[in-house]
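During the first year of the project, the team set up a workflow for recording each protein of interest as an amino acid sequence followed immediately by a discrete structure-token representation. This format lets reviewers and collaborators read both layers of information side by side without switching files. As required by the reporting guidelines, we include two representative entries from the current panel. The first entry is reproduced here exactly as it appears in our internal archive.
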Amino acid sequence: MSDEKDEMETPEAANDDDETIRDDGNAPEDGADEAPPAEPTPDEIIAELKDQLLRSLAETENVRRRAERDVADARRFAATGFARDVLTVADNLQRAIDTAKANAEGDATAVIEGVELTLRQLEQMLEKHEVQEIEALGLKLDPNLHQAMVQIEDGEAEPGTIIQVMAAGYTIHGRLLRPAMVAVAKAPKTADTGQNIDTEA
């Protein structure tokens, strides 16, 4: 009898055996069915390398062009400081001419003509190096090109119009070298109220 009892299994033991079997079984793991990523083909590798090469060549070309532009600008505008100083000489020549004409006596005409010739030669030299005078008189004030030094009441000119150029402005290769120093018209005041008259009405 004792042998038969030893051979009998309890329900708990049977369950433990089932779990052991299930644990030892070859159950599929997560991701076991997923295929490994495919290796790129030789054609794909060549195409990728070709794309990288083309990108590198394009970037190199862009750098080269930027460098060429920088060098060209440096050459074109290298004389900017010199040109600005020369403009001061031109201003003084023009003032000398204006003063001499206003106070001309005796043989001063010959001196005036000589100074005017010098000024024309200087202006031609500036034009040769792309130094151009900025138009101003009679135009609307442009803050990018003109510097208003004073406002003058004027009943004929439209407010904001340049009515006098005190010193000419210049550009070099299209870049501002010196703004024109100008006087700008403003509406005159009425005698009764002291208010500006709106000439645009």
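The second entry, processed by the same pipeline in the following quarter, appears below.
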Amino acid sequence: MARKPKICYFQKEIPDRISYTSVLETPIGRLRIVANTKELISVLFLADNCEVEICENEITKKAKQELKEYFAGERKEFSHFRMQLPGFEGRVLRAVKKIPYGTTINYKELAELANMPYLVEMAADALEENFYLIMIPSHRIVGSDQKLHRYQAGLERKKYLLELEAKYSTEEEKKRSCMKVSKK
């Protein structure tokens, strides 16, 4: 009997109950996009040399296309995908979704944006629960020293994503990156 290929994930295990998968080759590694029939479940980088069985649906195809457009500099915002964002981590990740393309904020500003100004470290820790890399742009969070700190997929990827956004940002977006992000 033939053995199923081992599926490897970048740092996080994903439940077997997931039905649909797409994989996107990017300049910084392969992204595995997972959905069920109603919502996007995850967008995570695969570890090297992993095999994945691909079985796409409309949600994974749409997310894959939008991510392709993002890497080509043609997309700056993603469609509203239904995502699982429960509890404290969800509150932080919903705040991260408000950070505009080409803009960075620090962890203290993130805590304030999530309406929890005294929980800076907990807000930073919540980013480790981001199962929707790039689509929920946790790469846009930097240290108060403006240096790169903490990114679930590695600092090299974070640097690449920030440089990509800087390359394709308009002058107006570059000006906005110096302004505070609204809590609206």
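For the second entry, the following points were noted during internal review. The two ends are 56 Å apart (CA to CA). Residues 87-176 form a domain with the Arc Repressor Mutant, subunit A fold (CATH 1.10.10.10). Both points are flagged for discussion at the upcoming steering committee meeting.
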